[in-house]
Amino acid sequence: HNNEVLQQVIAFVLSTKNDELLQLLGEYASHHKEAFDALLATNRHYLHQLDQGVIAFDALEHGAAINARNKEGQSALHLATLNADKKTISTLIARGINVNIQDKYGNTALIRALEKVLYKDKNEVGRDIAQQLIAARAQLDIKDKDENTPLIIAVQNKDLAMVNYLLQHGACLETFDAHMKTALFWAAEKGDEAIFDVLLKQGAQVNGVSYPEENTPLMAALSNRHLGIAQKIVSQEEVAVTQKNRYGNTALHLAADNSEILKAILALYPQNKRLEAVMVKNKYGNTVLHDAAGNSESLKTILALLPQNQRLEEVMIQNKYGNTVLHDAVMNAESLKTILAPLPENKRLEAVMVKNKDGNTVLHEAAMNAESLKTILELLPENQRLDAVRIQDNYDNTVLHKAINDPEILKTVLELLPENKRLETVIIKNKFGQTVLHDAAKNPKIIKSILELLPENQRLEAVMIKNHDGRNSLLHLAAYNPESLKAVLALLPENQFLDAVRIQDRFGRTVLHLAFNNPELLTAILTLLPENKRLEAVRIDDRYDTTVLHMAAGNPESLKTILELLPVNQRLEAVRIHEERGEAVFHDAAKNPESLKILLALLPENQRLQVVMMKDNYGYTALHWFANAAILKTLLGLLPENQRLEAVIIQNERGETTLHRAASNAEGLKTLLGLLPENQRLEAVRTKNKFGNTVLDRAADNSECLKTIQALLPAKTDYSSENKEQVVLPSNKDILRIPQNRSSFFSIAQENNTGKDVLHNPAPMLGPLH
Description:
The protein is mainly alpha-helical. InterPro entries: Ankyrin_rpt, Ankyrin_rpt-contain_sf.
């Protein structure tokens, strides 16, 4: 029971599960087998309990090894520490447990007391346990798997009291962690000045280099903006300032945006080395000048080191992305002024025109910052500003293209150019053929900003420029946005409106063609034109010989809008456009009943018949197109009564009238005949087509249609085909004696085996169908 070495060996063999060694031990203890088996059982029980997180003190009483560790490598002391059990810790220490045992992660009980109990669990008992363990002579410089010591852990957690306590008990200042960082390095990185001061006072070194970042404590402080600590490091003797980290940065790069620290670090360099130091490039090709771009005071400090004749050269140094210090200073107008103002005036454009790898100059980069843009342009001689603004990037965009979403910036740029040079800038195209106005087509505010700054006599030229492949001008693109189009037209001289509206795209379309489906837009365009010029505008053909009127013919509201805005005495001419080809506007409108109704209603009554009688390519009039009774009634109703017969008997190329086409539609026949004067109806139904067929012939096999015709013809009147004298017949059925050709009504009736009945008694045929 008192053989501590044997206890430890048994505990080790059990924890490592080394069966061969265990067998060997058993053989050596063969003379004390009973005692050995009991000791083995006790240690097995103790280890099993440790694996469960339980400390079996009864097993310790019977010979279990107190320093045994469970499968996580934890001893009873680790378990008691994690449970924040000070009493058990005291008991274990009193029993002689090793306070420096490390678990499988390298943690001692002291490290766990700090890292887990005190800092992670925020349990102040952890501080008491740490002091309890230190009093029991726990070693202070043992490292965990990350090579952190208790002191480094306390610094990382900004625990000044624990740092002082550990230092008082002999913790080592210069121990490195896995990244070669000391406690002082961590204090600089974390930014705790009080802890930093304590460590510095204790004599900690300030020139260490971490791995793999290769930073010094000064760099760590600067990178994390802990400028107070940086100042304190710089004030130390023999501070290393030339060290480059893995990104090629020196302390000067990292201090570049703080002029005070920058000056302090520069002062540590010999005077003849300072210029060289600020021109050192990091991994990305940035000099200290690049990194100071956002701080005008730092820039002044660096530029003061440069001889006057070297400044342009240094200012034009490009990093790996092609950026100069001007590119990097683009969002800071004061910095831009600090860089450009000291340069000779005739050299400034050269500096501004340097392009980065995206093809952007500093002006392109400044396109979203009005103050910066204005600063740059004001510092250029007036005769060089146009050259600067005309510079194009890799996509041929100018600064105006880049500033397209900001009217104030566009205004700033254009106002700084001579008025007679502004158009030249505005009409520059990018690689997609777009001018700045094309890009602004959907934004009326931008359009207004640009056009207002152009001389009035140049505005039409600007809006007439066509984009890629001659597709669209600004007017064409703006046609999809009523407010944009209004903005364009409102800023053109009145005498140029017609010229603007006449501009055609590659398909020959004008802005009116594009607006054909938008009555509001059509109104906006046409009302800007003198009334006597509107017909000329709507007569323009696209490449397919289509006018806006033809396109609007299918949209009643659009058609109405256009016709109402034309002088009344020009409307007939408008609807007859392309009549000579049989493709008049009226013909297209005739395909839409509502459009047709509107068109006729807007013509003087004495012109309507002339339009209704217009024939298309196939000899059809509007009346030929419709068999719908309601539509026919509307159309004829718009004609004077004495003109209706003339409209109804117009014949197409086959000699057919509207009645021929309606012959199988009883309702249509009723409407047509009902709208004719009674004494003209017979003449209408006896008109023959090219094949000699009358309406009666066509209606012969439809009793309903025959009945309709019978009901609407005068009861005692007939017109023979030989003369025009009225003949009084015995009855209405005598109409059947109207002379016919060989394909006459009679022959049709005979073919249907109804001839005899119809001749002697038409009633069965005219009666209802069964």
